[in-house]
Amino acid sequence: MTNEDFELDLSELSSAEDFLEYFDIDYERSIVQVNRLHILQRFHDYLGQVDEMPASPDAKWALHADLLKAAYTDFVTSDAATEKVFRVFTMKEPKQVAVPLSDLMEQVPNAPAV
């Protein structure tokens, strides 16, 4: 396999199941059905933490397989709410801001006094 072949193979994968099967990872359908986007996002996050991608396609394949297996395993032993993969799970509560109506009315020409 060449680097180009590997990149082409990756570009053709479209689902979590496709990725898991391509990298020969055994999986439970029920876990993937519930967590597919979380698994793929965690896989993407793990790839982003790699400082330097190996040069050989076989080493790249092995690294990707290890990282995908780790991402899948995260959701075998935990759940999406605990893992907090997506930003929406880590967002803080919105801040309460109070603006007096009189301040707003000052911005409107010919507005009645409040």
TrEMBL record:
Give a GO biological-process term: nitrogen fixation
Question: What keywords are assigned to this protein?
Answer: Nitrogen fixation
Output the InterPro entries linked to this UniProt entry.
Answer: NifW (IPR004893)
- What's the domain of life for this entry? Bacteria
Q: Does the keyword Ribonucleoprotein apply?
A: no
UniProt function note:
May protect the nitrogenase Fe-Mo protein from oxidative damage.
User: How does the record describe its quaternary structure?
Assistant: Homotrimer; associates with NifD.
Family affiliation: Belongs to the NifW family.
Q: What is this protein called?
A: Nitrogenase-stabilizing/protective protein NifW
